[in-house]
Give the backbone structure.
Amino acid sequence: MPRRAPLPPPPPPVEIRSWPDREALLADRAVVLGELVRMHVGPGRLGLLWMWAALAATGWSLVGSGLVVFEQEGDFFSAIGGVVVLVIGFGVLVPAVAFACVAVSRDRKVRVLLDVWGALDRDPERDRRLRMPGTSLAWLLLSFVLGAAGLALCVIGPASARPGRETYGLVALVMGVGMVAWLTALVGGVTALAHRRWVVRVLMGGGSGTGTATGSVPVSPAGGRSASSGHPRPGSGTPSPRSDHSASSGAAAPPVPPPTPAS
């Protein structure tokens, strides 16, 4: 199995971001997004997907060949050969399917990181290199061709089988290879469409502002009240400045002496 590069971490929370300015943030964002896009729809990712598909198809072909050997009348040594072919087939098929599932799960994590890093800010100049329309189109076209071939095998194989000539093992072999091709094409098509959707939604759509991107916290005015809040409305339970002033002035007034009794 080829060694995979570790995924980059998500951006730090707003409270602990330490980019000195917006340009430094955009530079880090461009580096991380470039690496994530390469992991998502790069040529190496497409080759890896097709490699696991080829191994899975090879494993299923060996399994189907073992079933064909068991269905045919043969001696003891033919049965032993069929068992050996079955074991080898499962030994190739199971790891290929497991690694393909791991790759699909990794793609989901990559898409999450693409969303959170892309939402930091907008950079049209650097983002233009991340769109990769030609690569996405290649993914889509190759997936379409592979899916059409897989569906043809799944339909034509059982339809063209003749009783007494083709065995059940041969039909299962053809349908299994077609199913592997169709599932691989489905993964490739979903990956290409997901990348295109991310480009339209994050890179070309409305992004967050520079204030949120750089992690700057809005400063409230003096007194702990935002600038948008006006004077409290009457009857809201908060005393007005006039009533506070009158109350304080009344409390500070000197006491009135009692009247002097008449002599």
About this structure: Helices lie at 22-41, 43-71, 76-118, 124-127, 133-159, 168-203, 210-213, 241-252. Residues 207-256 have pLDDT under 50 and may be disordered.
